[in-house]
């Protein structure tokens, strides 16, 4: 190992725990894996190290802490002696509310504030808390850092984040737009600045993160000034299974006319809508592209709506930003789907976008670069790397000397 320092990155979901060991300076991934179906009958853990993929069952109802214990006992010690090179643990935390506009070293006060944000992210933050607590137990000597999905969007101005609702809902309950995917939008911003040869605090881009979840952000002078996700990840673009923007009147209609309960509406909008709901086939863009090519009307309609709605957001963000240095596509769909990119740009020729067909077809499987013609508004594909951002922030915030494991030393 040229630089021996490594960061363990943990991403705790409600029933999963993704982990990775990364060189924070080069971004090299030494280990990646996932504990899945946690709390259920047959949890599993699978991981890749030294080019080898392995997997194992875990005891029924195993939790995040069990995955971390397995990671310590069975994986780290046997995988290139990684354990002795760990300098810190970085945690992805979905919601930091208004409390965190940057990544922070976790101490008891920070952990309590993350707990306070559970009200804003009841599905996501409890898992992060569980992962942090388990990691403190497993690695008492290592500093731990929280990297928030919402932090990058804390620069949004009030007129972008306040809903047109009674103001007291914001004042008393924190109900406002927060935005998500901030770590990815930040990575893309920094990388776009490098590719465009601009200082990061002077770059103006529109960043479209299109994965199973999808959001788009307007970035002025390197800072987020508007983004499509809101209080929750449901607002904004059409996603794999989420509706994105709908008329709020629809919710009253579902409840009063069709007898839907809150839980069913939640399920409908978050898990049964989007690409899956429209196509009645799949939430997966690749599967829909194939089905559409074979004449499946629902798949075609789902892709049409996904691209049209995305193009509308891009056009509106041209209005938000006085100057756009580049439109950037990222995330599984943004990085790989030449069809989606082509369909989106076809709506935007009035704004000066012109696709270079050959470049667009080439840009997939991790390829980075421009997909527009020389005379077009600049359009880039940049593969995102949220784990690397988390590892970099973690390494830069971790004190040079490891604390001695006394919880009071966790400053
Ligand atoms: P997540 O948000 O869960 O991290 P990803 O960023 O991996 O998801 O994106 C998953 C989406 O990317 C899926 O809809 C998948 O079909 C799509 N995708 C991946 N590869 C391709 C491809 N070659 N062509 C079209 N879509 C793709």
TrEMBL record:
Its EC number is 2.7.2.1. The keyword Nuclease does not apply. This is Acetate kinase. Mg(2+). Can also accept Mn(2+). One of its GO terms (molecular function) is kinase activity. PANTHER family: ACETATE KINASE. Signal peptide: none annotated. Its cofactor is Mg(2+); Mn(2+). Homodimer. The record marks 181, 242 as: Transition state stabilizer. The active site is at 149 (proton donor/acceptor). It comes from Microbulbifer harenosus. It holds the Pfam family Acetate_kinase. It is found in: Cytoplasm. Belongs to the acetokinase family. It catalyses: acetate + ATP = acetyl phosphate + ADP. Catalyzes the formation of acetyl phosphate from acetate and ATP. Can also catalyze the reverse reaction. Keywords: ATP-binding, Cytoplasm, Kinase, Magnesium, Metal-binding, Nucleotide-binding, Transferase. Substrate binds at residue 92. Pathway: Metabolic intermediate biosynthesis; acetyl-CoA biosynthesis; acetyl-CoA from acetate: step 1/2. InterPro entries: Ac/propionate_kinase (IPR004372), Aliphatic_acid_kin_short-chain (IPR000890), Aliphatic_acid_kinase_CS (IPR023865), ATPase_NBD (IPR043129). ATP binds at residues 18, 209-213, 284-286, 332-336. Mg(2+) binds at residues 11, 386.
């Amino acid at each position: 190992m040229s630089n021996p320092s490594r960061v363990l990155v943990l991403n705790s979901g409600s029933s999963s725990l993704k982990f990775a060991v990364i060189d924070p300076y080069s971004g090299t991934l030494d280990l990646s894996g996932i504990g899945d179906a946690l709390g259920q009958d047959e949890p599993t853990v699978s991981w890749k190290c030294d080019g080898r993929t392995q997997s194992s069952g875990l005891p029924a109802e195993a939790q995040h802490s069990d995955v971390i214990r397995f990671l310590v006992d069975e994986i780290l010690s046997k995988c290139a002696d990684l354990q002795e090179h760990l300098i810190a643990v970085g945690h992805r935390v979905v919601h930091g509310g208004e409390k965190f506009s940057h990544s922070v070293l976790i101490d008891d006060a920070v952990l309590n504030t993350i707990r306070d944000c559970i009200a804003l992210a009841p599905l996501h933050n409890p898992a992060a808390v569980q992962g942090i607590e388990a990691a403190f137990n497993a690695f008492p000597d290592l500093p731990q850092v929280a990297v928030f999905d919402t932090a990058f969007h804390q620069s949004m101005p009030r007129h972008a984040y306040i809903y047109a609702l009674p103001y007291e809902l914001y004042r008393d309950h924190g109900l406002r737009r927060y935005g998500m995917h901030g770590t990815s939008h930040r990575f893309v911003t920094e990388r776009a600045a490098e590719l465009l040869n601009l200082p990061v605090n002077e770059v103006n881009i529109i960043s479209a993160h299109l994965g199973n979840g999808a959001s788009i952000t307007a970035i002025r002078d390197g800072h987020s000034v508007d983004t499509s996700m809101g209080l929750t990840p449901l607002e904004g673009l059409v996603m794999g299974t989420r509706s994105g923007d709908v008329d709020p009147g629809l919710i009253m209609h579902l409840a009063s006319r069709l007898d839907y309960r809150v839980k069913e509406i939640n399920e409908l909008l978050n898990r049964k809508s989007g690409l899956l709901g429209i196509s009645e086939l799949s939430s997966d863009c690749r599967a829909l592209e194939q089905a559409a090519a074979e004449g499946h009307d629902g798949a075609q309609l789902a892709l049409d709506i996904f691209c049209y709605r995305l193009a509308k957001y891009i056009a509106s963000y041209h209005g938000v930003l006085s100057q756009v240095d580049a439109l950037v596509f990222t995330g599984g769909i943004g990085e790989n789907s030449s069809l989606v990119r082509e369909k989106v740009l076809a709506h935007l020729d009035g704004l000066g976008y012109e696709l270079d067909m050959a470049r667009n077809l080439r840009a997939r499987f991790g390829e980075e670069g421009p997909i527009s013609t020389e005379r077009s508004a600049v359009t880039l594909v940049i593969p995102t790397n949220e784990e690397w951002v988390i590892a970099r922030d973690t390494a830069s915030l971790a004190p040079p000397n490891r604390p001695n494991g006394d919880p009071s030393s966790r400053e």
